[in-house]
């Protein structure tokens, strides 16, 4: 089956063959539909003639949000001490935006000539995270890029970008996968998994969300959440252990909170649910959403918030 990423890849190859690739491109679509995967695959083909994703190439510069200065110091100290970096340490505390200094470094990179007359490629992933000064600094390069260069921007939300940025880029839109395409992706990449149909609405056509789910034992996480919300008193020890583990891993925490809200939706959609429980779950949906948001925004204790949620849901009887 030809997936949306494959179709977009072939489109870019056709543009390359026509001699019209140079310039600026915007790759759009919701989170997890494969924008970064598409770019890594095509850029590898452009620079090496192979489709194997590149970790480094002298003619490629990839700009994204960087670590804060405090985070950089923590990482260096950890490595100097001979300790392994935790995934959660790499994922948190990144700068909230792409700055003008980041863009200036990209513009300077494009002004250099490739040693072997290759393409020079600049990627801004994602353009939604540029601040206003950075966006304005990029405008001239988008309109008049140097010869034999191409600029790729990704965007999860075009509405956040300046109209002058959007108008200077040719666009390729990646749509979420259909359920049929998603099933094909799962069976091809996770052949040992079964009984996943109930989670198709959770994935919502997002390859990224699907990979995060299976790579972090999402089915097991979901079953635990369902067990805790059914009767928390019997599971108190498990709830403590689970909340402690999840709160220490940013990816696992995000998965758990998304699956918690997903489970509440499933409960609410049960046509046999009595009016008392339906009212209870509706109230909890609102309160839990607020608590999870406050936990993120106010830097509250994640373990405590999860335990509070599970205990209240599981004591409804």
Q: What's the number of extended β-strand segments?
A: 5
Q: Given the C-alpha coordinates, what overall shape results?
A: elongated
Low-confidence stretches: 87-94
Structural class: alpha/beta
Strand composition percent: 5-15%
Could you report the average pLDDT, rounded to the nearest whole number? Answer: 88
Question: Major β-sheet, in short?
Answer: 5 strands, parallel
Helical residue percent band: 55-70%
Rounded to the nearest angstrom, the distance between the terminal CA atoms is 48 Å
The SSE order reads HEHEHHHEHEHEHHHHHHHH
CA gyration radius, whole angstroms? 23 Å
Task: Give the neighbour order of strands across the main sheet.
Answer: 2-3-4-1-5
Number of H/I helices: 15
Q: Can you put this structure into words, describing what you see?
A:
It is a single chain. The protein has 317 residues and is an alpha/beta fold. It has helices at residues 4-17, 35-48, 69-80, 87-91, 100-111, 132-143, 163-167, 179-189, 200-203, 207-215, 218-230, 236-247, 250-268, 275-297, 302-314; strands at residues 23-28, 60-63, 120-124, 149-155, 170-173. A five-stranded parallel sheet has the order 2-3-4-1-5, sandwiched between helices. Helix 6 links the parallel strand 3 and strand 4.
């Amino acid at each position: 089956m030809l997936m949306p990423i494959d179709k977009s890849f072939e489109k870019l190859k056709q543009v390359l063959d026509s001699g019209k690739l140079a310039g600026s491109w915007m790759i759009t679509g919701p989170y997890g539909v494969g924008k970064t995967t598409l770019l890594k695959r095509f850029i590898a083909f452009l620079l090496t003639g192979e489709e194997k994703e590149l970790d480094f190439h002298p003619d490629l510069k990839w700009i994204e949000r960087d670590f804060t200065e405090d985070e950089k110091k923590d990482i260096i100290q950890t490595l100097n001490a001979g300790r392994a970096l935790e995934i959660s340490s790499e994922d948190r505390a990144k700068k909230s935006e792409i700055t003008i200094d980041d863009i200036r470094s990209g513009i300077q990179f494009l002004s250099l000539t490739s040693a072997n007359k290759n393409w020079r490629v600049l990627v801004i992933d994602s353009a939604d995270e540029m601040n206003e000064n950075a966006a304005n600094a990029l405008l001239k390069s988008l309109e008049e890029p140097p010869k034999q260069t191409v600029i790729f921007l990704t965007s999860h939300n075009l509405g956040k970008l300046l109209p002058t940025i959007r108008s200077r880029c040719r666009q390729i839109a990646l749509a979420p996968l259909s359920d049929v395409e998603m099933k094909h992706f799962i069976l091809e990449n996770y052949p040992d998994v079964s009984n996943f149909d109930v989670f198709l609405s959770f994935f919502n056509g997002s390859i990224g969300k699907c990979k995060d789910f299976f790579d972090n034992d999402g089915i097991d996480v979901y079953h635990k959440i369902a067990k805790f919300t059914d009767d928390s008193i019997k599971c108190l020890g498990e709830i403590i252990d689970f909340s402690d583990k999840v709160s220490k891993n940013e990816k696992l925490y995000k998965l758990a909170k998304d699956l918690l809200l997903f489970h509440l939706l499933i409960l609410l959609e049960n046509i046999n649910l009595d009016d008392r429980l339906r009212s209870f779950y509706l109230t909890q949906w609102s309160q839990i959403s607020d608590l999870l948001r406050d936990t993120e925004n106010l830097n509250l204790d994640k373990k405590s918030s999860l335990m509070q949620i599970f205990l209240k849901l599981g004591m409804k009887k």
